[in-house]
Amino acid sequence: MLVLNAVMISVSVVNLQNHQKRTVEQVVGTTGNLAALLELNVADAVRRVDLGLLDIVDALEGRLADGRVDANQIEQMLNMHLLRHPAVDGFRVSDSQGKVIWGKGVTPETMVSYADRPFFAEHQLKPGQDLIVSEPILGRVSKIWVVALTRSYRNADGSFAGVVTAAFNLEHFIGLLSTLSLGEHGSAVIRHQNAALLARFPAIAGPSGQPGNKQVSPEFKALLDSGSATGMFHKAQTPDGIERTYAFRRVPQTPFLVTVGMAPEDYLDDWRIELRNATLLILGFFAATVLGAWLLRRYWQKIQNQTLFLHTLIESVPVPLFYKDANGLYLGCNNAFEESLGKHRDDIIGKTVFDMAPPEIAQRYKEKDDELFSQPGTQTYDWLTVKNCKERNVIFHKATFRRIDGEVAGLIGAITDVTELKQAHAELQAHRDNLEQLVAERTAQLLQTKEAAEAASLAKSTFLANMSHELRTPMNAILGMTGLALRKAEDPALQNQLGKIDFAAHHLLGVINDILDISKIEAEHMQLEQIDFRIGEILENLRNLIAQRALDKGLRLDIEPCPEIGGQTFKGDPFRLGQILLNLSANAIKFTEQGTITVRIHLSESGANDAVLRFEVIDSGIGIAPEDQQHLFNAFEQADGSMSRKYGGTGLGLAISKRLVKMMGGEIGVDSVPNVGSTFWFTVRLQKHVNDARPVARQLRISSETTLRERYSGTRVLLVEDEPINREVSMSLLEEAGLSVDLAEDGEVAVAMASQTQYALILMDMQMPRMNGVDATRAIRALPGYAETPILAVTANAFEEDRQICLAAGMNDHIGKPVIPDLLFDTLLKWLSSRPLT
């Protein structure tokens, strides 16, 4: 029994020693394989980002060479690459001085520079060459720890133009580490080649766990200094106090190092259990036999679980992966590899490349594998393959793996398809090679676009001119007939009714003018006058127009001039400036039931030649909700739909005001609180009139109609008008002024009558049958005695270009329809007075 026990103890001790040795050897192989897998993932992540950097560099250099640097297009390109690379916090571009000018989070206020970054100085020395990867740095824009992957780009002459950076988020590395099965106390670390910490899993507190920390163990330092690409080391004392065995690998073509460590506390757990069981074996052979079988089964299940985990991990990787033994037989692959090859794994595993490819291609694959086996480590190269009858460009990245005994057991490979990227490079080169052709094509396209735009503008101008004429002609008849009736009506009730018609007609005319104004602005036909005026004149006119309206609603009207501008004369368009103030003031009265309407002016800026004035219209009305304020200045919109029913209006006044303010170099806005009131404000920049004269005292003005009747009664004038009602209106007005009027219904009749009779003045319509007013004017000017005769256009063609056409044809002045009687009489008096009485 003692001998048997001794034999059992001896066998148990030998088995325990062998188990411990095998466990340690297995840990060496497992950590090495996990480190190789981690190396592949890190290398692939860096390679993908570098391909993005190369694409951005090519695009930037192409735009610099072509002189087509468009900030918006560059920002769009950087955002597109950012979407493709979730591991990158942001792609950013600096200029040759290091200032960051484009990219995520870059604004004019950031004022970030790379000039003091080491990678920037390296790129300045060797522009356009290498990928430079920084150690962990705190991002100046993102404010997070990143690793900067950088490449430089060059000007067309090859000189250094700046740096493109990809801020690789360290959280992505942590995500890669967290997928490794290292046991409860295992650890995985990624460091820079200068030992700076990039990522550690699991994380530890304190300085040792902070990015950039360079504190490493002597064992790691010795392996790092040796220059070895791979290695193993054991560390008894770690920052978190856990003993571990580590596998070490350098990630090729990057400055990164990976270490994967497993703790004896984890991997010797089974050995300790076996030690306990061996002790029990001494106490009972049978119990030990049963316990050994149970432990064996449990051990086998654990191996199966680990195998299942590794299988799941490989299958989840989107990159095609495969692994072979040292004889070239496929041992396994993932779903992505099956899809890329177009074969089921049952037709792949256990076969060589000679079983699946033509001999000459298979031989090339074998030569590359033999090259890797002769020098174990990693291997990366480009390859041209055919898939679905189409050529594909791929990059192979391979690495050898070893058995527990250290012998090379095979290789694992990954395939990255870069066909689209190479096609993009080829297309870019083709664009460069065919630049002249592209420029010619683009020039032709721009010419076609310009001709189409000019045609559209001409059509819109024609439409506006026709609309103006067709709307103003009947309005002239309505307003003219109403005015004539008001002049003769004596019955108060009839006067009241005619007054309402006149008010409604003027309101409709205002709507028509607003629609035509907004159309002219959008068609870019609106032109501002540049004449001398004073702000006081505009305010006085505003008071005359709205004072009674405010009084009728029981509102107080306060107009506060600006003392600082006093009698200053400005140069600009007083009519349009007054139109803006009238729009805002009329709205304030419309939407205010009680309280005060205040019009206030401030001097915002004052220079030697110009000034910026701020106008405010303040009311105590219904106010505007914040969500409605953003729509106020859109054409045909009000704060809400119910306002148009309750208060009336087209919603054009504010839109026109906004466009006029913009044309005057200013801004417009509103500050409002519902049920409290609103402040509408706008600014304009006006030129100062330097040689300002003192104001001239006003003289008592006698009516032009009265003067005409007194001085020019019986003067013979010719009225040329084709529309019967408008003829009747105009003739009545002229006869009331004491003039003798002859009628001509078109241009031909007018020319014939002028050749027979000498008229003191001719009133000429533009659009008429047979001969229009322009042609008739030219014909009359050619008649004897009509070289200096005043010819006045009285027409519904009210645009500035129409006025210019009339003046170019030889007309002396332009009166737009609907005709305002006082304006008509003023103009008649002006031109009749310019000729001596006969």
List strands and helices in order, with pairings:
Layout (H helix, E strand, L loop, with lengths): L1 H65 L4 H14 L3 E7 L5 E4 L14 H8 L6 E2 L3 E2 L6 E10 L5 E10 H9 L8 E6 L4 E5 L16 H9 L3 E6 L8 E7 L5 E7 L1 H4 L1 H15 L1 H32 L4 E5 L4 E4 L1 H7 L17 H16 L3 E10 L2 E13 L5 E10 L1 H15 L1 H54 L3 H31 L8 E4 H18 L3 E5 L8 E4 L1 H17 L5 E11 L3 E10 L6 H4 L11 H6 L6 H11 L4 E6 L3 E12 L15 H8 L4 E5 L3 H13 L3 E5 L2 H10 L4 E4 L8 H9 L9 E5 L4 H9 L4 E4 L4 H13 L5
Parallel strand pairs: 18-20, 24-25, 24-26, 26-27, 27-28
Antiparallel strand pairs: 1-2, 1-6, 3-5, 4-5, 5-6, 7-8, 7-11, 9-10, 10-11, 12-13, 12-16, 14-15, 15-16, 17-19, 19-23, 20-21, 21-23, 22-23
Helix pairs in contact: 1-7, 1-11, 7-8, 12-13, 12-20, 13-18, 14-15, 15-18, 19-24, 21-22
